[in-house]
C-alpha cells in the first residue's frame, strides 16, 4: 500500500532559532507588531509503500534517526496525509 | 486574544524541488527503496495577538504576501495550532 506522511522537523526547546528570530524581527519592522514569536520548522512530505501503516511509521522513524533529523538539536513528529 | 498558527510554505506544482529530490535519492541509497517521492516544505509557527481569528487570518495572509512566501514559485496555507 501507498502512504503519504509529513515528517515535521523542529528545533528542540532551548536551541536558538536564528531564522525564526530574524523572521519575527522582519515582520515587526514591516508593521506587524502583534507578532510575539516565530518558530521555523521543516517538513518532508514522503510517499512510500509498505505492507501496513505501522510498518510505514517504523520506516519513517528510522529515516528520521538516520538522515532527516539531527537528534542533538531537533525533534521530529509524523503526521499522515490522506 | 493570542493565536498560534502554522504557515506552511510549499513549492507550486511544476517548480523543481532540489532538496526534496536529493533527500529522496539519499533515502533510496540508504536502503529505503520504497520511498517514491519526497517534497520539502517550510513552516513558520507564528504567535500573534488579534481581536478575532478572522483578523488574525487576514494578517497572516498579508504576512505571506509581503514577506514569507514568494508568489511566483510558492503556495501557502494556514493551519491553527491549539
UniProtKB/TrEMBL annotation, chains A, B:
Family (UniProt): Belongs to the PurS family.
Quaternary structure (record): Part of the FGAM synthase complex composed of 1 PurL, 1 PurQ and 2 PurS subunits.
Reaction(s) this enzyme catalyzes, per UniProt: N(2)-formyl-N(1)-(5-phospho-beta-D-ribosyl)glycinamide + L-glutamine + ATP + H2O = 2-formamido-N(1)-(5-O-phospho-beta-D-ribosyl)acetamidine + L-glutamate + ADP + phosphate + H(+)
This protein's UniProt keywords: ATP-binding, Cytoplasm, Ligase, Nucleotide-binding, Purine biosynthesis
HAMAP family, per the entry: PurS
Residue stretches in coiled coil: none
Task of the protein: Part of the phosphoribosylformylglycinamidine synthase complex involved in the purines biosynthetic pathway. Catalyzes the ATP-dependent conversion of formylglycinamide ribonucleotide (FGAR) and glutamine to yield formylglycinamidine ribonucleotide (FGAM) and glutamate. The FGAM synthase complex is composed of three subunits. PurQ produces an ammonia molecule by converting glutamine to glutamate. PurL transfers the ammonia molecule to FGAR to form FGAM in an ATP-dependent manner.
Gene that specifies this protein: purS
Chief localisation class: cytoplasm
Location within or outside the cell: Cytoplasm
Enzyme class (EC, first level): ligase
SUPFAM superfamilies recorded: PurS-like
UniProt cross-references to InterPro entries, sorted A to Z: PurS, PurS-like_sf
EC number: 6.3.5.3
Protein name stated in the entry: Phosphoribosylformylglycinamidine synthase subunit PurS
Pathway linked to the protein: Purine metabolism; IMP biosynthesis via de novo pathway; 5-amino-1-(5-phospho-D-ribosyl)imidazole from N(2)-formyl-N(1)-(5-phospho-D-ribosyl)glycinamide: step 1/2
Amino acid at each position: 500500500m501507498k502512504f503519504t506522511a509529513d515528517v515535521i522537523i523542529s528545533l528542540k526547546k532551548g536551541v536558538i532559532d536564528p531564522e525564526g528570530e530574524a523572521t519575527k524581527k522582519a515582520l515587526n519592522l514591516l508593521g506587524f507588531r502583534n507578532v510575539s514569536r516565530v518558530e521555523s520548522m521543516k517538513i518532508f512530505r514522503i510517499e512510500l509503500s509498505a505492507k501496513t501503516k505501522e510498518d510505514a511509521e517504523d520506516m519513517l522513524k528510522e529515516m528520521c534517526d538516520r538522515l532527516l533529523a539531527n537528534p542533538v538539536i531537533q525533534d521530529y513528529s509524523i503526521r499522515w496525509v490522506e
